Amino acid sequence: MQSISEIYPLLASPKKVVITMHQKPDGDAMGSTLGLYHFLVQFEHTVNVISPTNWADFLNWMPGVKNVLDYERQTVAADKLIEEADWIFCLDFNTLIRTKRMEEKLSNARGLRILIDHHQEPQADKFAYGVSDTSKSSTCEMVYDLIEASGHDDKINTAVAECLYTGVMTDTGSFRFPSTTASVHGMVANLKSKGFEHSKIHEHLYDNFLENRFRFIGNVLMNRMEVFYEYNTALISIPQNDLIKYNITTGDTEGLVNYPLSIKGIKLAAIIIDRGEERKSSFRSKDGFDVNTFARKYFNGGGHFNAAGGQNKEPLEEVVRMFLKAMKENKEQLSNYEF
Ligand code: 5GP
Ligand code: MN
């Protein structure tokens, strides 16, 4: 993988560009891809954004989101765009399998794959150009860095600013995680100076839920959460019936794992959701517990040091058993905790 800076001189010549992201995109995946989209269309490129799957309703206010293709629903059109693309930007994921059913098409594409990502252990040999930096708060910050380093600060318009702010805000937990560096605040200051209303973005993302989600959360916290104090660990496991009963859709479960993490003394929080086709897990940790390694070792997953996820084909009860076993195996690291 050559440095992303090699493409800066090539930005000016028109190309067919596809931008894609990980499945079930979050604010950073959608923000970074659309931010890059609004930047690149200001050159003469033909640019299309493809998501491997659908996404949460709370992202549907974003500028340009109406033109994003959902690979599962628009496979034929998306396949054609991937086949014809000169450049395929891969944002906010480290391994092609994170694009689910798109993996094979991306692997076989004739265009150059370009990585922009902040997850650990990227498949560097799959990309012609790229940048991978786990110290970055968000992929949005990395798209911002690309725009600045290529000398195009003047191309940051309101749409670019709104999209990039969305991802940096969501991936930093509204600017509270340790990844929120001085450079992040510097970036936000510059984006603000381009003129956009940041409080509107917080409203779009966090004050836009339906009542059913809160009834569902009430049930989860009351009936689906277990705390293992001797391991400083809490687990939420959600059967598929709950999702059906409360009419839960993509995005409604996002952030739920943070509730148990905010219990005093909890060092590892986990949520396992039976999505029917698979059991999806999310892990969050505080301090020195590495959930990236934990997710990789036990749950076919990965992510970051303090936020990771995985997926399993086994039934929910079995995945819960696997979690409890894994927790016990890590007792030494989990129980040595100073409050
Ligand atoms: P979340 O728990 O919010 O789905 O994901 C937390 C972090 O872990 C994100 O950075 C996400 O990209 C990563 N992640 C989530 N699920 C998986 C997975 O199944 N495999 C890998 N490699 N990373 C994941
Ligand atoms: Mn991200």
Outline the structure in words.
This protein has 339 residues and is α/β, with parallel strands linked by helices. The chain has a 7-stranded parallel β-sheet with strand order 1-7-6-5-2-3-4, with helices on both faces. The chain has a 6-stranded mixed β-sheet with strand order 8-9-10-11-13-12. The protein has helices at 27-40, 75-84, 103-108, 139-149, 158-171, 182-193, 198-206, 211-223, 240-245, 258-261, 291-299, 316-329, 331-335, and strands at residues 2-3, 16-21, 46-51, 69-70, 87-91, 112-117, 129-132, 225-228, 233-238, 268-274, 279-285, 302-303, 307-312. Helix content is 37%, strand content 19%. Helix 1 runs parallel beside helix 4 and helix 1 packs antiparallel against helix 5 (158-171). The termini are far apart. The model has no long low-confidence stretch (mean pLDDT 96). The radius of gyration is 20 Å and the shape is globular. Strand 10 and strand 11 form a beta hairpin.
Quick overview of this protein structure:
The protein has 339 residues and is an alpha/beta fold. The protein has helices at residues 27-40, 75-84, 103-108, 139-149, 158-171, 182-193, 198-206, 211-223, 240-245, 258-261, 291-299, 316-329, 331-335, and strands at residues 2-3, 16-21, 46-51, 69-70, 87-91, 112-117, 129-132, 225-228, 233-238, 268-274, 279-285, 302-303, 307-312.
